[in-house]
Write a structure and sequence with these properties.
About 50% of the residues lie in helices and about 20% in strands. The chain is built from 14 helices and 11 strands.
């Protein structure tokens, strides 16, 4: 089999094939043997008619399509490997120029491949790194999380329900005097003010005493998960069984010892400040790195085949389905509640998917151009980090590695090295995050200035009149 490749565009090639007659004849015979059992020929038992008889009866080309389909996968894969191609879509048979018994099979195929990337500048870039300065409010908010975990509940018997209390209650709901499914419960626990129940329910319980019964008038939201209740007025008859109030711990050394590895509150607070400061630095680094990479992507150019973008969109939609499944939701319900179609979800993801694909292609192009050499230490570090992400020991993970996974990890290590190179060559200006200019606010301010100027001009014109 002989094949040649011709570039059609930056992301598509044309392959021309010439398969020897002997190979095509063998495929014809194989097609005949597979099909003869499905062909009924008068005078012959089913499956026993000679090939020549069938061809005479149905035409010489009766087995051509099946013979072609039998040959194609092997000759196509061989050509892809021979010419070092990276197809990103299914091949399209462009033309069949010669197909007959006793003759070479000649045909051409077009297929989209990974596009060529015209790299822009990726060294000497400029970027601002905005670092959030940890404030006392940040520290207190972080402490509040530990306070919440250490908070206990204490029975209350000498006062009515207040916002923030946890109430044990019975309730029975009805619409137009008729009880509805899921509207009745006993011994239900509810934190007042949590927004767990439908709007108005919790607010009307404030002031109720233990043992008190009361009718609460509420209206179900529209839309609502239960369509038959959406927008309907309802009455809930409730009874308060018990009240519990939150008891927060004192912020002292005992609290610090209970919620951390530190023995004093001062040490605990200082550790939190350091944790928040380190996180702020890491977040700023990641944001700055992403912005640098996006600069490289925006400065580069490539014609991305639609199939690559569609594949990325499908991957993102599969991830969306999986995330919803983990939350106990159905993707079909998501579409219904949001009023979206499959096509609209795809369109929503399209810009991000296109950017993701372009980013991957551009970074691969930078890796190919720089061809960074890896040390054993760098490869081992990548393997160990991947093992950690999968919750495995480095030894067990290494033992299960195959060539494909190893090469993928090597590529990841090269990517990290290239990104580090881009960062090292960039001019980074560090600023306080409070100095960040909100682009939307700038646009809004500019529009206000323009509107003010237009108003002044109109007022001036009126005066002149």
């Amino acid at each position: 089999m002989a094949s040649t490749v011709e570039k059609v565009s930056s992301n598509q090639v044309k392959l021309t094939f010439e398969v020897p007659a002997a190979e095509f004849d063998a495929a014809l015979q194989k097609a005949y043997l597979r099909m003869r059992g499905r062909v009924q020929v008068p005078g012959f038992r089913k499956g026993h008619a000679p090939r020549k008889v069938i061809e005479t009866m149905y035409g010489e080309s009766v087995f051509h399509e099946d013979a072609f389909n039998l040959l194609f996968p092997d000759v196509y894969e061989a050509a892809v490997e021979e010419h070092g191609l990276f197809p990103v879509d299914q091949p399209d048979v462009d033309s069949i120029d010669q197909m007959a018994a006793g003759q070479d099979l000649k045909f051409t195929v077009k297929v989209f491949v990974k596009p060529e990337v015209e790299l822009g500048e990726y060294k000497g870039l400029k970027q601002v790194k905005y670092v959030h300065q940890v404030t006392e409010d940040d520290i207190n908010s972080r402490i509040d999380r530990d306070v919440e975990k250490a908070t206990t509940l204490q029975d209350v018997t000498d006062r009515p329900v207040e916002k923030g209390d946890t109430v044990n209650l019975d309730y029975a709901g009805s619409v137009d005097g008729v009880a509805f499914e899921g509207g009745t419960a006993q011994g239900q626990t509810l934190e007042i003010g949590s927004g767990t129940f439908i709007p108005g329910f919790e607010d009307q319980m404030v002031g109720m005493a233990i043992g008190e019964e009361k009718d609460l008038n509420v209206t179900f939201p529209d839309p609502y998960q239960s369509e038959e209740l959406a927008g309907k007025a309802a009455v809930f008859h409730v009874k308060v069984n018990s009240i519990q109030a939150k008891v927060k711990p004192e912020l002292d050394d005992d609290f610090a010892a209970d919620v951390s590895d530190y023995t004093t509150f001062a040490e605990y607070k200082e550790a939190i400040k350091k944790e928040l400061t380190d996180n702020a630095e890491k977040n700023a680094d990641v944001e700055m790195e992403n912005a640098l990479i996006q600069q490289v992507v925006d400065a580069s150019d490539c014609d991305i085949p639609q199939a690559m973008i569609d594949d990325e969109i499908n991957m993102m939609k599969r991830q969306l389905r999986m995330n919803m499944m983990y939350q106990g939701l159905k993707y079909e319900d998501y579409l219904k509640y949001t009023g979206q179609t499959e096509e609209q979800v795809s369109d929503m993801y399209r810009p991000e998917a296109s950017n993701r694909v372009k980013m991957q292609l551009v970074l691969e192009a930078v890796i190919a151009k720089e061809n960074p050499e890896l040390t054993d230490e760098e490869v081992n570090k990548e393997i160990e980090e991947e093992a950690s992400r999968r919750g495995q020991s480095a030894e067990d993970f290494k033992a299960a590695l195959n060539d494909r996974t190893t090469e993928a990890l090597r590529q990841n290590a090269k990517l990290r090295k290239v990104v580090d190179m881009i960062k090292a060559a960039a001019q980074i200006e560090v600023k306080d995050a409070s100095e960040r200019v909100d682009a939307s606010q700038v646009a809004s301010d500019m529009m206000k200035v323009i509107e003010d100027e237009e108003a002044k001009e109109e007022a001036s014109e009126e005066e002149n009149k």
